[in-house]
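Recall that a protein's primary structure is simply its ordered list of amino acids. Everything else, from secondary elements to tertiary packing, is in principle encoded there. The following example makes that idea concrete.
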Amino acid sequence: MNRTTRALFATIFLALASCRSAGPVVAPSPAVGSVVRNLPPLASVWGFTAPWDARSDSSVRASASKLDAVVTGWIQLDSVSALPSLLYADSLRFPARAERFALVTSWHGDRFHPETIRKLAGDRGALALAAARVAAIVEEHGYRGIVLDFEAQSPADVQLAVGVARAIADSAKRRGAKTTSIALPATDTAAYPTRAFLSAVDYAVIMLYDEHWSTSAPGPIATTEWLRRALAQRIADVGSSRLIAALPIYGYLWKPNQPARPLGFHEATRLALESTVELTRDPASLSLHAIQPGGWELWISDAELLAALRTEVQALGVMRIALWRLGLEDPAIWSVVPPR
């Protein structure tokens, strides 16, 4: 899944408080808590980390009690050999209640490599070896689940990718994983049909973010209307019980003639404060938004947006969510995700 200032979670919270007192930040409405309290309990909440970013570790240590699973391991399929390796050392420890999962990804270098999945699909021996090595990593590190992430595939790759997903998932289950899933782009149902991939794994994680992305025009990361359309299409295909709605807790900063870069809530509030521009809530999208004329434009998720997205997800009957990505969040989102 595609997406660094190192700061402790407490420092982020204190800096956020000072930003709010200075006035450029719109705080979540007091109604957020009551809206969430009136929703049915979620069946599960997953959190994705960025193991290269110390902010993720701090967030996990502070919030693991609110999560059922934390994706801490990043298993990379090499773009030349197609063999997996644990890309980052995974020594993060947190309360035992939340299970540790690993991401298995075709991202290598600076992009996803669909040719890696095609190579594995066309070579039974290579696929068996890759699946066995993923399973060995799962067993060695005690991962209780995996999330497959094979982005940038084409519609012609569907059966190839499903076959690779099935081989890796089955092998991982034999070595200790109890939950297997695959991340699917929200609106690409041609290359990522839900029903086909659910024949290979337990759950489909629908990536309900990047409505606007790094190379698009600036705009909100996810709106309720866009989410509703995308998720409803997936539900129409397979129902809601095996879907996990992945929701954004980050933002993007766009500068002229450059791809946007991801940014976190603390950075967004600091940037607005330092630039003496107002961070306001866009009424149409419910996202926070700021512009420095001629310099930059940012859109960022916060607790109020997350509450609205969660409400839409549950109204459609999906009772499992995931958060992308820990360490970039508005600290107030943990009022939207109550203790498990």
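The chain has one domain: 9-335. The CA atoms of residues 187 and 233 lie 8 Å apart.
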